[in-house]
Amino acid sequence: MFQAEGGKSFYKGLTPTLLQIFPHAGCQFGFYELFRMIWNSWLGHGTALSSNAGTLESLLCGGGAGICSKAVVYPLDLIKKRLQVEGFEAGRRPFGLVQQYNSLHHAVKLILCEEGFWALYKGFLPSMLKAALAAAVTFSSYELCCIWMTKIYKNWTPFVV
User: Fold this and answer.
1) Phi/psi of residue 44, each to 5°?
2) Which end of the chain is more exposed for a tag (fewer CB within 10 A), N or C?
3) Of 102 and 74, more confident
């Protein structure tokens, strides 16, 4: 890559990555807390959140948060991936049109003009499944660690938003 395109080739897709990471993380935590409030009100616990969620609650709420947050930022994820695979035209030709993009703006413009809005969500299902599983495991692991820490250290209080 360095010989063919120079050092800049190592940073393809960096802009959409940076644009998506903060909203993705923020949405994930926001959706997780929203789903926990819905969970607690649905099960009759009121809207007050307990300091720690149970395993099933954290798995389901975390999975839902992963799906929703991925849906919000997925277009940037798709553009990032398309920018990153540039330069591998020979391997991509059997899959159809090989497009060249000059920038993030150029990629968005071409995708919308030539493929339409829904092209920004191509490949969403596998990405959504990964996001749901990763978020479910992450949030349930966090909740289990908080429970474990409170049992070991009686005065320890988990960080609750």
Assistant:
1) 85, 15
2) C
3) 74
What DSSP string runs through 46-84?
Answer: -SPPPSS--HHHHHHHHHHHHHHHHHHHHHHHHHHHHHH
Predicted confidence (pLDDT) at residue 1 exceeds the cutoff of 80: no
pTM of the model: 0.77
| Token pair for 106 | 């150029």
Q: How far apart are the C-alpha atoms of 32 and 22, rounded to whole Å? A: 15
Structure tokens at 90: 């020979």
Instruction: Give the burial class of 71: count Cβ atoms within 10 A of its Cβ; 0-12 exposed, 13-18 middle, 19 or more buried.
Output: middle
Q: How far apart are CA 53 and CA 113, in angstroms?
A: 45
Q: How high is the pLDDT of residue 102?
A: 81
At 32-52, the pLDDT tens digits run: 999 999 998 887 665 455 556
Among all chains, which residue has been given the structure tokens 């960080």? Answer: 159
